[in-house]
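Reviewers asked in the last cycle whether our approach scales beyond single polypeptides. To address this, we selected a multi-component target totalling 709 residues and predicted its structure end to end. The input consisted of the following lines:
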Amino acid sequence: MAERLATVAYLADEGLSTAVYLALALQRPLLLEGEAGVGKTEVAKALAAVLGRRLIRLQCFEGIDSGQALYEWDYARQLIAVRAAQAGTLTATDLFAPEFLSERPLLAALRAGDGAVLLIDELDRADDEFEAFLLEVLSDFAVTIPEIGRVAAAEPPAVIVTSNRTRELHDALKRRCLYHWIDHPDLEREVEIVRARAPEVPAALAREVAAAVGRMRGLDLVKRPGVAETIDWAQALLLLGASSLDPTAANATLGVVVKDHEDAELVRDHLPAVVAGGQPGRG
Amino acid sequence: MAEGTTGSGSPGDGGLPPAAAHALTVLVGFARLLRARGAPVGGGRVLAFCQAAAALAPLDTGRLYWAARTTLVASRADIDLLDRAFEECFGGDGAARAFIRVGGDPEALQDVAERLAAELPLLVAGVPVDGEAPDGEHGATAAGLVASATEVLRTRSFAELDEAERLAAQAAIRRLEVRLPTRQARRLRLAPGGRRLDLRRTLRRSLRTQGEPLRRAWRARVTRPRPLVLVLDVSGSMSSYARALLQFGFAAITVGGRAERAAAERASQDRQVRAAGAGRVEVFCFGTRLTRITRALRARDPDAALEAVAASVVDWDGGTRIGDALERLVTRYGQQAFLRGAVVVVCSDGLDRGDPAHLARQMARLSRLSHRVVWVNPLKGDPRYQPLARGMAAALPYIDVFLPGHNVASLAVLGEALQRRGRRAR
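The resulting structure, written as structure tokens, was:
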């Protein structure tokens, strides 16, 4: 699995590739947790690319309901149809015909079945009610639309659920899922990832940047930079014509990696140590 | 529950080939060990574990580990637990290899998975989810045990817990619903049960019904979270309680952070707009000096944070200068948005070394500045306790809510007390 993921420039370690493999083999949703920027969403994208499946993404937000996730009737078109048919006869069956149904990600994924990878992104942003609803869909991969009937997936789609842990997800949902915690990668892997994602960055620079970001994570930051930031930073430095990381260049481009004012000050205090290595002081 | 599928008199191993029986015992035994340590491992997880092991066969130690980790654990907090249990069961002296040699062949594992899958519905059917009126013998005891263990944990004082219980209590505290106190804001938003008519929207809606305002829209005032400030005594006698309260603070920060983010996201949508300091949680520690540890708590594990704080407090002689700590809080942070109108929770046993009059003055200032002062004193958990210590007696007139907070149950009460409306309810 790791090798197959590597073909689309996603470098997974043993744990993650095992988890992904098991999710496919056991046909269970995979719940990914980890800090922001460790590549949770990317897993789903890479998986879809590897399997040659369509990626269907459901971005969760507070207050999301089944109308936004599953299906909605196209009221405007229904109203027009009512007007148009005012003289003639129109039955309720005509009005709730499939052409008035707008498909949302979950329904799309059920219909696509194993032709899809369903990404349910940042589930922790949605509220409990939505989680309960999702549980229903994920347990039998079927929904009933009263006016039309039951829609069931012939083969369940691959499901990746991500959470940033801003709150604990409900146990019932976790029980349905396989679980994997994605950590920040170690130095070697991070260098590989930068090289795979941004091949134009020279190896030496990639290594310096990855090492510096690794040291930054050791500082007491509110928002620790993720892998995405490492890649951005390497690219930004390259764009400015820097061939290696020095304090001046690092200072000028710090906003690419550290996106919190207090954090930026903390990093600036330790900048030489962060850039050059050695023991950074604790903040 | 898979409780009954292993051990003596288990219904599961009859008729299985020896290799499969061995695998069943070991795999389920491992899952049970994990559950005994406090991880929420139910029957479904055990089944998934065995299925995963079968799917990954031929096994090696790494694969066995990852099969366990992806199926038996559902939270980062439990990963440590799993690692330790795995090391115990399968680490050292090639125990994993020994198991794999005997019970690790694909067929045996497949047998185990199928057997478990077949029996799981029966076992689960015997044990109602809420643990009430169980009729299945095997699951019944398990459900009962878990329930009573949790109950005991809720009411035991933090000071009496051993390490394992402390971890379980921490998990329970983190699950507590900490609701941030709220206040009514001026802004109106659309609300079905509101009192004021939203004319603009009503008019728009009336267009749908040929200009007849059949469906009216209403608005109501929004509520916004108040800031919450925790001030924790970390002197020697208080450490076990302070630890628990830090967990509580951690839970509150998580809630606060979410409220802040949600408010920021909605700011553009004419709904709850974030006010200065809304939904904020600040945490301070004091022994003889006041330290702000909000940052440490945001980024790190609360235990580690407490240790860092403990290390930074040099003069540990059991002396507590509450008055000085509060003075610093009020003078240094009083002008900042988070203290004004906040709910302040002070956690201390009130055994103060300083001047009681000084403490009383600072408490008075604090009570004027904040919305409400909650004092949590673990000694109050003892029914015979009287607030006679000089410091405690001096502070008492300025306290709105006086709570024990010595166990999980009373912290749950604290979580509710925070939100309650109305002031000066003594």
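The domain at 2-67+104-182 of chain A is CATH 3.40.50.300 (Rossmann fold). We regard this as preliminary and will revisit it once experimental data from Aim 1 are available.
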